[in-house]
């Protein structure tokens, strides 16, 4: 029929769209259009029908995505990133506490942030497992930094009062004494003894040392130190003479270690410390799990 309508009043385009395969062949042939001809290609472009017919060659190919997928995430790279971030944060945390003498416990949150950031940037793909591992790295780093800092402080302020009495340590001290009193003059001994009784940071006062103290040092302490420095007193002789003292020192050190562990445990139970550690672990988990 004229105007592109069939006997039932349906347009040619409607039949082409509704039909498929052999039906489209029949519709085209019924209208005097040869499949594969220029006219068939024009109809294909106009009405957008498909099928397995030769006309199907005129259909446009699907558009390719403008941009390809991003870099695929890696679980193990995330673990490595979390470890690196937690290590870096722990070193900064330790440096601030130990060298800057700042006791800002909430700084622990920064360790959690750097751990989570490392896992997020390097791993790309987050997961619950990665979050747990990163949080574990962060907790380990914070505990290690706090332990080392507390240990250094304890040895400097408390444990330093225990004088090492082993043979090697005593020989080292004896050699130092012999160097500072080479002629054994009263003035050399007076200055040495004044430095020994002065507090840290305090200026020595040689005039405070009496003549009796100088004489006692020259007659009793100095000869033994010279024998130790020269090796005249052997390790076996020294150990046999100081066995009781060595046992006492070992007992003092064992007691000191137990006292430190109790001190460190109490320090961990500080409310602000617990809150900061929990915040650090939670932040590291959240950032790693949602990476």
Explained architecture:
With 291 residues, the chain is mainly α. The protein folds into 3 domains: 2-58, no CATH class; 75-152 and 277-289, no CATH class; 166-241, no CATH class. It is built from 12 helices and no strands. It has helices spanning 12-18, 22-30, 38-47, 75-98, 108-123, 128-157, 167-180, 186-197, 211-230, 235-241, 243-268, 271-289. α8 packs across α9 (211-230). The longest helix has 30 residues, at 128-157. The radius of gyration is 43 Å and the shape is rod-shaped. The chain starts with 11 loop residues before the first helix and ends with a helix.
Largest sheet: none
Please tell me the total number of domains. 3
The gross shape turns out to be rod-shaped
The Cα radius of gyration reads: 43 Å
**SSE run:** HHHHHHHHHHHH
Structural class: mainly alpha
**Count of separate DSSP helical elements:** 12
* Cα separation of the termini: 65 Å
**Low-pLDDT regions:** 1-14, 16-21, 49-68
Count of strand segments: 0
What is the overall pLDDT average? 76
Estimated helix fraction: 55-70%
Q: Please state roughly what percent of the residues sit in beta strands, choosing from under 5%, 5-15%, 15-25%, 25-35%, 35-45% or over 45%.
A: under 5%
Main attributes of the structure:
291 residues, mainly alpha, 12 helices, rod-shaped, disordered N terminus
What's the gist of this structure?
The protein is mostly helical and 291 residues long.
